[in-house]
Write a structure and sequence with these properties.
Strand order of the largest sheet: 5-4-1-3-2-13
Number of strands: 17
Structural class: alpha/beta
Largest sheet: 6 strands, mixed
Oligomer: single chain
Helix content: 25-40%
Distance between the termini: 61 Å
Number of domains: 2
Radius of gyration: 20 Å
């Protein structure tokens, strides 16, 4: 039996209120002061995972009691030490590798500092997250009748690890790619590293609004703690794949813009009769790419620091795609706010786009 653990954390006060109802009656600052003193703990045991190859695995969700803003506002040394203690909890349970979810994957240079002080391998899971985001986005483009060779791609948060990899892998399929970030120098460095149809095929921008207004297909994966894409700036007919946690795309977009398609960073079906024994968002038996990568590495018996830092290589994205297929992971359809998007919903969006063009 192969083993793993995955670190999670509350995404907002509502998450904390599920366990401590008083959290909604006091200020967020007070809640933050209280939870930061809480030790990490086992949330659930993950059972029933079985690869197509016959290999079985089990794991544990380990909660790190910090809110998203605390991962960026508190001293990095303190946050990394808290994560290290969570890894000790995981190892005590029997885990042989630890996956880092959401903001736990950002602290300490994308897990690099953590990997240097713990005696268990870690991975951010960002390689398979990248793989599934690309697969889901390209599937959505097909459903929306968008031909990438005639379309503009925007990658928001392009200087982050997932954003860089998405831009490098996807840019050759699009007639133009806009890479978006806050640091112009890092954007220009990335621009130079992307091989596409000549210099004119890549544009670097620090304006999310401007890029989103031009793009037919958008992948967004920033480290922001609030929405960065609002309803008014999006081009009619666009697809947006929101890989970020917390979400980059405002919920208002799905309410106010019936002429665009917003999808989550892709959810996958794990192999076997899987029970996560905890409601962490996806439907039963399904998980996000970062969780999937941790499971895949356990099934593969690859107990090593796999995705660490901000350099996700194209070769690793392709390797993770191959390993996912080997062990029986499959995309669980296109989803928005964790709910399956039906063909009829997509048809309605396409009808609204046509109506807009007639006006």
């Amino acid at each position: 039996m192969e083993t793993f653990a995955f670190l999670i954390h509350p995404l907002d006060i509502d998450d904390i209120a599920k366990k401590y109802k008083i959290a909604k009656r006091v200020s967020p600052k007070v809640v933050g002061q209280v939870v930061r003193r809480r030790p990490s703990f086992v949330v659930s045991e993950i059972e029933g995972i079985q690869s197509k190859t016959g290999v079985k695995a089990k794991g544990w969700f380990i909660a790190v009691p910090l809110l998203p803003w605390q991962f960026t506002k508190l001293e990095e040394e303190y946050v990394v030490e808290k994560l290290a203690k969570a890894c000790k909890v995981a190892k005590k349970e029997g885990a042989k590798i630890v996956g880092l979810g959401a903001f736990t994957a950002i602290a300490g240079g994308g897990g690099k500092a953590l990997s240097e002080i713990v005696d268990i391998p870690v991975t951010t899971g960002n390689t398979y997250t990248t793989t599934t985001a690309i697969q889901g986005t390209m599937q959505a483009a097909k459903e929306m009748d968008i031909d990438p060779s005639q379309a503009t791609l925007a990658v928001v948060g392009a200087t982050g690890s997932i954003g860089q990899a998405c831009a490098k892998v996807m840019a050759p399929d699009f007639i133009k790619t806009i890479i978006v970030g806050r640091d112009k120098d890092r954007l220009n460095e990335l621009k130079d590293n992307i091989s596409v149809f000549g210099e004119e095929g890549i544009e670097a921008s620090t304006s999310v609004e401007d890029a989103v207004g031009k793009a037919d297909v958008i992948v967004t994966v920033t480290g922001a703690t609030g929405s960065v894409i609002k309803p008014g700036s999006i081009k009619s007919g666009a697809i947006i794949c929101d890989v970020a946690r917390p979400r980059d795309v405002s919920r208002k977009v799905s309410v106010e813009r019936d002429d665009v398609l917003v999808i989550d960073g892709s959810i996958v079906k794990a192999p076997g009769d899987v029970s996560f024994n905890f409601d962490f968002g996806p439907p039963p038996g399904m998980c996000e790419g970062c969780v999937g990568e941790t499971i895949i590495l356990a099934l593969e018996r690859r107990y090593e620091n796999y995705t660490i830092g901000k350099n996700i290589t194209v070769d690793k994205v392709k390797e993770m795609e191959m390993l996912a297929e080997k062990h029986g992971f499959t995309l669980a359809g296109l989803r928005r706010h964790e709910q399956l998007i039906t063909i009829s919903e997509i048809d309605k969006i396409k009808s609204k786009i046509k109506e807009g063009k007639k006006r």
